[in-house]
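With this grant's support, we have settled on a layout for protein records. A representative record follows, to show the layout.
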Amino acid sequence: MLKTYTLNLTGCDTGVSLLLTELPALVADRAARAALRAVSEPEDGGVITLAFKHLGAVRALGEPGLRLLSAFVNARLSDGTALDLADARGVIKDWRNIEKIQQQALYLHTGFILERESVDTPVAMVGDQILHSGTEARVTFCSPLLAAVLESDRATYRELETVLSTEDCFNIQEINNVRAIRRWHESQKAAP
């Protein structure tokens, strides 16, 4: 489910408190793909690739980069008023806090990945997939991760658009991967 974080600003913005809410997975993926496109990088990595590999390049775009990264900020002031970073000059006095807000908003979407253990996929299974898979058609409106989750029928488009986070998608895909690995092991045992 979507995570929230209370961010207390510092410096000349001390006393300003924001409630940041993570964007749904498809919404975050769209924003990440737009940012990656703006810096001519492959879009398939989505929000994870943006945050861990290309954030500096997007920031280097200046004002356009600020707008692209502001798409991740879903913030409310302590009185419940929505904060629009593009029009936050009356609320946020220190420009460094804009970057802090963007950084924390991206962390809401990607922080889980830092301590996540990966599933070990047998090398022979990967080899079998390469040798026996035909040319594959691929979805282009979202990252391969989200497409795999949709294809698995473990989440609907509407759920990915409204309530499921990027971390939820990683969890669902991990379930799909473990199931595929178990089936592959079973087929190897059954093979002559």
User: Anything to note?
Assistant: The chain is about 55% helix and 10% strand. The mean pLDDT is 88. Residues 123-190 form one domain.
